[in-house]
Every structure is written in C-alpha cells, then in structure tokens.
Amino acid sequence: AQSVAQPEDQVNVAEGNPLTVKCTYSVSGNPYLFWYVQYPNRGLQFLLKYITGDNLVKGSYGFEAEFNKSQTSFHLKKPSALVSDSALYFCAVRANDYKLSFGAGTTVTVRA
Amino acid sequence: DSGVTQTPKHLITATGQRVTLRCSPRSGDLSVYWYQQSLDQGLQFLIQYYNGEERAKGNILERFSAQQFPDLHSELNLSSLELGDSALYFCASSVALAGGGDTGELFFGEGSRLTVL
Questions:
Q1: What does the pLDDT read at residue B100?
Q2: Nearest-CA distance from A31 to chain B in Å?
Q3: Which regions in chain B score pLDDT beneath 70?
Q4: How many CA atoms, within 13 angstroms, populate the side-chain half-sphere of residue A106?
Q5: Residue of A nearest to B10 (CA)
C-alpha cells in the first residue's frame, strides 16, 4: 500500500522568505510523486511531478521540489514566497496501480 | 480553467435520497478519476476509469457507483445518502499516453458540493 505524510498542518512565512512544505512517502517500487495546490473553493491544480531523472524538479509559479530516495521525501520549496502563494498544498504518490494517493494537505499562509 | 466540467456545482438533498454527479473530462483525456474531499477524511480516492473501463478502485462505498460512457463523460451515483456523505466531490482527468495509461498529472474540475440534510 502507498501512503503520503505531510507532517505540518500549517506553515507560516513572511513574504520574501523561503517556503518549504514537507512530504514523505511510502510506496512499493519506484514512486511517481506530485505536488498540487488548492485555492479556496477551487479544484486542485498541478504544480510539478517527479518520475525519474534529476532529483530537483522545477514546476509552476517558481516552485521546485527535491526528491530524496534515502529519506523517502519530496519537499516542496520556493526561494521567495508571495502572499498569493497562500493556499492548501497537497503531496501525492502513485505506484503501479494507478491510484494517486494524496496527503492530508498543508495550509500555507504568507504574511505581507 | 482546467477544462474539466462538473455538474451540478451545489446540491442539497435529504438522507436516503440518490444523486448523480456528472463529469466531462478535458478533450482527449481518456482517464477520469473521482475523489471525495471532506474536513475529517481529507482527499479520498474513490475510483478511476480509463477509456470506459474501471482501472482502479479506492475507498468507494457500496452505496456509490460510477461509470464512464463511450463519449468519455463519467457519472458518480450516490444512493441511500447519509449525513456523512456531505462533501466536495471532485472529478479529474488525465492525459493519455500513446501506449496506454496516463501521465498521472490530473486536471481537476471545480467540484460538486453535496450537502445531505
């Protein structure tokens, strides 16, 4: 069975500061890893994914994520956060069974 | 706009009733996923269809059923509704790969908010 853990329910940062949202996963075989963002009253939007190759993946809106196989982690990062980055962020993992399993989500608040 | 259309956006009904939620995937996407989002359960995978066939099943109750039609739209049927079924139901579609399967990158609709009274 596959699972995703997002250890922080909330992350608060000041605008302009680095933003990190943590994610660890458990899956049999090679993982497909994803980050999605959800704004209030909206559906989820794809940010980035890791399937294979370079451990540092760049995505939309200046976000990037680093795959660490030994730590089974896939943390989302942004060097300089914006107030508009305030949203709910989901990490997701998929194995060979096609099911995409989401973490519980992390609420990011960026204060001006 | 993701290109995935869900109807209705809001639905209020009573316990014991049956409702149908409809989803039209993005043009060209063969995979359709259904998810339930609630405050206490988070985002739960229900079921996935690929080109009309059921591909993966998650935590879908026996009272719930789904299908994908030849035109690739999908419907999620919820019956004998209970208060706990109140949630936001999302449909998502995914880009198909040439050899079958999909990329796993999902495009979500805006959701159907179901309230059971």
A1: 63
A2: 11
A3: 96-102
A4: 28
A5: A41
A81 near A16, Cβ under 8 Å?
yes
Residues of A near B (CB-CB distance < 8 A)?
A: 32, 34, 36, 41-46, 49, 51, 90, 94, 97-105
Contact criterion met (CB < 8 Å) for B106 and A100: yes
pLDDT tens-place string over residues A47-95? 999 988 889 999 999 999 999 999 999 999 999 999 999 999 999 998 7
Tell if the CB–CB gap between A98 and B4 is shorter than 8 Å.
Answer: no
Residue tagged 């305030």 (tokens): A86
Count the neighbouring beta carbons within 10 Å of the beta carbon of residue A30. Answer: 11
- The mean pLDDT of chain A is 92
- By C-alpha distance, which of A110, A107, A100, A111 is closest to A46? A100
Cis peptide before B70 (omega within 30 of 0): no
- For A51-69, b/e burial (b = at least 16 CB within 10 A) is eeeeeebebeeebbbbbee
Task: For chain A, give percent helix, strand, coil, nearest 5.
Answer: 5, 55, 40
Question: What values do phi and psi take at B68, rounded to 5?
Answer: -120, 130
Q: How far is B17 from chain A (nearest CA, A)?
A: 25
Q: How far is B71 from chain A (nearest CA, A)?
A: 22
Looking at residue B14, its pLDDT comes to 97
